[in-house]
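Example record

The entry below shows one chain as it appears in the dataset: sequence first, then structure tokens.
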Amino acid sequence: MHNITVSVGRIAQLALVSISLTLSSVAVNSQTGSVGAGGPGAPAPDLQRLASTARTADLRGNWDGLMRAHESIAAMPSSATDGRTWIDYYLGYVDWRQSSLAFMAEGMSGTAALLRHAADHLLRALEAAPGFTEARLLLVIVDGGTMIADPPRAAELAPRLTANFQTAIAEAPDNPRVKFLRAFMSFYRPGSTRAAKDAALVSWREAAEAFPGRAPANEPEWGRAEAWAWLGGTLLGDGNPAAARDALEHAIADRKDFWWARDIALPQATRSRTSHGR
């Protein structure tokens, strides 16, 4: 279990590091604005319930649960355009989350296949609703993961990734998932100074704090616990186990069933803090 859990966290980090490398020359302004406009309306309650079930399965590392959620979401009726758009978004989300677990069983080829499926769903969602910022942002993350899992596609995907991230920033600079990814990008940007990294960590914490306690009906649920947990993992790797533990405890307070944060990262932070006195 230890090796599996570390691998899941590592794959997620590598995907985002790929994004930061690709976007290292992108200028990011500190503008403010709305959470985005032009996307679909709120998803149907039954779809929201299935999406929440899928996230729970992901946080628990439950492959079978993710599979069941995927099948149920795919089987939902979609008479309205908005309904189909959200179905494609959440099918893309589940494929993305399954891609990390697939690495342990099938290696990078399994990860790449699921990320390709995820991208197909998200592209369909954006074709139906070009202003769907959440789908655009998730496609950025999926494309970053694909560039790690399938390196020959990097040159093909880099322009799309860069353009979509710039558009997401312009559309929804106050979206907490946008803020989180901007902070992550700033921390891992090649050549970042210590001062720049420290500023990025502050922005990352502010992004995690910006997530509402309960997601609005027209926004995805995921992000709050994940931002805290991935911040904790970054702080642990940065040699600050005390701050890492604080971030991880925030993640677990939000979702007590977050297995990677609870069972692997937090014990590591606690051991490191004890041994290093930080």
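Notes for this example: Residues 2-24+34-172 form one domain. The radius of gyration is 18 Å.
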